[in-house]
Design brief:
There is one protein chain. By secondary structure, the chain is an all-alpha fold. It has helices at 3-9, 20-52, 56-61, 73-82, 84-116, 121-130, 136-149, 156-180, 184-192, 197-208, 210-226, 229-235, 243-248, 258-292. The radius of gyration is 26 Å and the shape is globular.
Length: 293
């Protein structure tokens, strides 16, 4: 008996995926799991927003419930105590600088190790990628000493270089994976036409890799903006510290106001949420482009 005849003899109701009831059960089960995951992910944000609208008395009386009397006093006090415009400017400068520097450096390195075939390129790539598994806490002291030796402590440049150093591994990894999917024949054809390596990189590779660059830029922006460790270490008590450090300083040793801290967190996270909502399609398109290629 042939395999075709055996498959033809199997009843339709036992074939995989042919049972409507089973498909419905699986569909509702997956939906339920996704809803639970969404609730777990969104609950901290909702909890923070609700608490930011409470007074200290209202929070003490019902910390987990809805606000009885909605108050925006916490936001007003946050702007006064944190000096939000200055801290916002500092965060934009340091995050933007670190993002730009890490992306440009990763662009050059990824192109060199994937398309130039330089000697020792694989070792350089493996060394950079190995930094992904090293926690930042392990190298924070050597990094701090290096920043001090360079005279960059408490400066924008020191924090920008630190952000770029920690953002370089993941940026290099993502761009290298994208560049490897681009046929070498395109590069060779450009070289035959007389194009130099810089021209190939910026006029051909850069436009092609725009989805990947957009995706990694948004991911790096999120962690750089929300980072607390590096600004605390590099900036210290400088007036050039970031917005997240300002939120951390809202809680004193004897004065901890959860509604005030919640308002500060919402103010600090608002730019991140806006950027993510505006560019979430770029994140998805960058991931899908790398997967399809």
């Amino acid at each position: 008996m042939s395999l075709a005849s055996v498959s033809d003899s199997v009843p339709d109701d036992v074939a995989p995926g042919s049972n409507p009831l089973l498909r419905t059960i699986v569909k509702w089960l997956v939906t339920f799991i996704l809803v639970v995951v969404a609730v777990v992910a969104l609950y901290p944000l909702v909890f923070t927003v609700l608490n930011s609208l409470k007074t200290r008395t209202g929070y003490a009386q019902n910390p987990l419930g809805l606000p009885v009397d909605i108050s925006f006093e916490n936001y007003a006090e946050t702007f006064v105590r944190m000096d939000v415009p200055r801290l916002l400017f500092n965060s934009i400068i340091t995050t933007g600088g670190g993002l730009l520097l890490s992306t440009v450096a990763a662009l050059f390195i990824a192109y060199a190790v994937t398309k130039l075939r330089i000697k020792g390129g694989n070792l350089i790539f493996l060394f950079i990628i190995a930094m992904l598994v090293i926690p930042s806490q392990v190298v924070i002291y050597p990094l701090y000493e290096t920043i001090l030796d360079l005279g960059l402590g408490g400066t924008y440049q020191g924090l920008i270089f630190s952000y770029a150093a920690f953002g370089l591994p993941i940026s290099t990894y993502m761009l290298a994976a994208f560049f490897r999917a681009i046929p070498d024949e395109l590069i060779e054809a450009a070289r035959i036409d007389g194009a130099g390596e810089l021209r190939i990189l910026f006029q051909m590779m850069l436009p092609i890799s725009t989805p990947a660059i957009a995706a990694l830029s948004i991911l790096n922006f999120v962690w750089m903006w929300n980072d607390l460790l590096l600004p605390l270490v590099i900036m210290g008590g400088s007036d050039k510290t970031t917005l997240m450090v300002g939120v951390a300083l809202l809680s004193g040793q004897y004065d901890v106001s959860i509604p005030l801290i919640s308002a500060g967190l919402i103010v600090a996270l608002l730019p991140v949420m806006i950027v993510y909502l505006l560019f979430q399609r770029q994140i998805l398109s960058g991931a899908l482009a790398g997967a399809v290629k």
